[in-house]
Design brief:
about 300 residues, alpha/beta, Immunoglobulin-like, 8-stranded mixed beta sheet, 5-stranded mixed beta sheet, about 30% strand, flat
């Protein structure tokens, strides 16, 4: 991944992300050092306060593009605090981010969405982020800073998960192990035997692990959030990984009423269920009719 930015904080955060994702390498350049020929060497890019002349060269995230850029229209810049009001929960970059509205944005841009793009995140008055495919390239534009919210002291995991989702959307299946459903097992296979390892959970707890040769097996992922793995192999090499645990089961997150067929176990069919209920009610109705007939017979016998 190519990162073009003057912001040291953002570049450091992107490098932390790359350390957590196997196979992802980040190279950082300042805008004045960027050359269009660089695009051929990278799979994706993050452009910060900078938009190249040709946006069709790379799958890319554009963060706070400069107002006079040649490709994206920026309506205005707002300095005041702003809340996210709505977002496209069905889009892969935003699924399961239930608390995105808790990000208190300090500085934002009012974006104009191109005809070939779709809104991702909105304030009460204007779009804050959009995505689209332009000449075969996947593009995301953010009208707010992202580096300020990555791995912050308040432990808000929305921004890191948002970035991980966006990178995965730009280059699908790049990082296979970064997203788990809560309760799922995390497995890391390393070339050399691992000497020591521990995982820091979203609650801040550090759990020591017992690796078997080069394999780490961790199943205590019941808390939603980011888990940080720290390990060292027998050669002294340091291993760091970050993965997120989310409520990824859409059926478990779905609160709308289910059809009776969906609610039943696979081994039980609607026909069997209906038949069983029908047989029970048949016996109840027959018993009631017998009781009524008995009362009628006793009543008329007394009259006779």
């Amino acid at each position: 991944m190519l990162a073009v930015t003057n912001d040291n904080k953002l570049s450091q955060q992107l490098k932390r992300i790359s350390n957590a994702i196997a196979g992802l390498d980040v190279t950082v350049f300042t805008p004045d050092k960027y050359n269009p020929a660089m695009a051929q060497a990278y799979d994706m890019a993050v452009f910060h306060h900078f938009v190249p002349q040709d946006i069709s060269k790379l799958n890319a995230i554009y963060i706070m593009p400069d107002k006079d850029n040649p490709s994206f229209k920026i309506k205005s810049i707002q300095q005041d605090d702003l809340r996210i009001m709505d977002w496209n929960r069905e889009h892969p970059t935003l699924k399961y981010l239930n608390f995105l509205d808790e990000l208190n944005l300090k500085k934002v841009q009012s974006l104009e969405i191109p005809l070939w793009a779709n809104s991702l995140i909105e304030s009460s008055n204007f779009p804050l982020a959009w995505e689209g495919i332009y000449k075969g390239r996947r593009i995301i534009c953010l009208g707010f800073e992202l580096g300020d919210y990555l791995f912050t002291a308040d432990q808000d995991v929305s921004a890191p998960i948002l970035l991980l989702n966006m990178l995965d959307w730009l280059t699908p299946r790049l990082s296979g192990d970064k997203q788990l459903a809560t309760g799922d097992k995390y497995i890391l296979k390393h070339d050399a035997a691992i000497e020591k390892a521990y995982i820091e959970t979203p609650t801040g707890e550090q759990i020591k692990l017992k690796p078997k040769n080069g394999i780490i097996d961790f199943s205590d992922t019941n808390h939603v959030g980011l888990y940080k793995l720290h390990a060292q192999d027998v050669t002294g090499k340091q291993i760091t990984r970050t993965f997120a645990a989310n409520l990824l089961n859409e059926k478990e997150s779905q609160i709308t009423p289910l059809d009776i067929e969906e609610a039943l176990p696979e081994s039980e069919t609607k026909i069997e269920f209906g038949k069983e209920k029908l047989e029970i009610w048949t016996y109840i109705i027959l018993a009631a009719l017998c009781l009524l007939f008995t009362e009628w017979w006793v009543y008329f016998k007394k009259l006779a």
